[in-house]
Design brief:
32% of the residues lie in helices and 28% in strands. It is built from 12 helices and 14 strands. α5 packs across α6. It is globular, with a radius of gyration of 21 Å.
Length: 321
């Protein structure tokens, strides 16, 4: 039996849509994001030029642009401790950087909040990176069949009044990913996930608003945990009630605005009420059942910088005390 031409056309279109969706969902950035969300409370993403930028970015003020680096603060110092040009060379070989963070704790004295962190650098296929050239010592461990190098660097990770060096670990997964972490076990777990031929992206499918948030050049997503918090002030959760589910953030560089979206249970308005009471940000406004939102301009002044500073604090990247 012959299939009518128009039915055949519709069938071909549907098959192309399914294949296109499959290819889009298995891009390296989605795979890395899914792996990080399985292990970390907060995940941030930025295009390479945002992480590498110094001074102003996209016409925004230098103060505003500096806050975009907060989630990635340890990375340049960690890389440059391997050699003067290491950070530039490695970041130029990358498309984007993701970071996962959890277990937020207060530093000793003034400093950025401490956390378990893992960076996933998405490498450019056309620019070969050889991680081993930055090390003179032999690898100290392995992760999913890849070599792991360990080194120490003075990054003030533990606070201004704590002179300890940071212990860092790195591994490269083919010409796809470079992983850098301050926790060996987390690095090994992530490496195993990213090296697997069976990529499970179900985590992303369960994230509310994931499709819209992930389209942006700079975004952050925090799924709140409500147990095991050592210091709620350092963690940025002192105003977070048990009904809060997640906090999302992205920058629209064309419109020069920051969007902050809070998700909570429909019956719990405690978190937006408490955050509004602090008056450190514009007020969260309801945008639907269990959805609250702030849209704030990037106006280039000190008020705009302070808003961005407050936003980063809510994701665990604040300065303490």
């Amino acid at each position: 039996m012959r299939i009518p031409w128009y039915k055949l056309f519709i069938l071909i279109v549907l098959m192309l849509m399914i294949c296109g969706r499959s290819l889009a969902d298995t891009n390296p950035e989605s795979i890395a994001a899914a792996a990080l969300f399985d292990r970390f409370e907060t995940v941030f993403y930025a295009k390479q030029d945002i992480v590498s930028a110094s001074g102003t970015y996209k016409g925004l003020s230098e103060l505003e642009s500096s806050t975009f680096h907060y989630p990635f603060a340890l990375l340049p110092g960690a890389l440059n401790s391997l050699g003067k040009q290491a950070a530039d060379e490695i970041l130029e070989s990358s498309e984007a950087v993701l970071v996962g963070a959890k277990d937020f704790r207060a530093p000793v004295g003034l400093g950025q909040v401490r956390a378990q962190i893992c960076y996933v650098v998405i490498l450019k296929r056309e620019r070969a990176l050889e991680l081993r050239k930055y090390f003179t010592k032999a690898p100290s461990a392995s992760a999913a069949g890849s070599r792991v190098w360990q080194w120490s660097a003075k990054l003030a990770e533990f606070g201004r009044d704590d002179p300890r060096l940071s212990s860092l670990y790195a591994t490269q997964i083919a010409q796809a990913y470079l992983l850098i972490s301050n926790n060996l076990r987390e690095l090994q777990t992530l490496a195993s996930r990213l090296s697997s031929s069976d990529q499970d992206l179900q985590t992303l499918a369960k994230l509310r608003d994931w499709e819209s948030i992930s389209q942006h050049q700079l975004w952050g997503y925090r799924r709140y945990r409500h147990t095991g918090i050592v210091n709620p002030v350092a963690a940025g959760t002192s105003e977070v009630t048990h009904g809060a589910e997640a906090l999302m953030f992205f920058v629209d560089f064309e419109k020069k605005v920051v969007v902050l979206r809070l998700l909570s249970s429909v019956t719990d308005e405690g978190t937006p009420a408490k955050m509004n009471a602090t008056a450190t940000l514009p007020r969260f406004k309801p945008r639907g059942p269990g959805v609250w939102e702030i849209v704030a301009p990037l106006s280039g002044d000190e008020d705009s910088f302070e808003r961005m500073f407050a936003v980063m604090y809510l994701f665990g990247f604040g300065i303490y005390p």
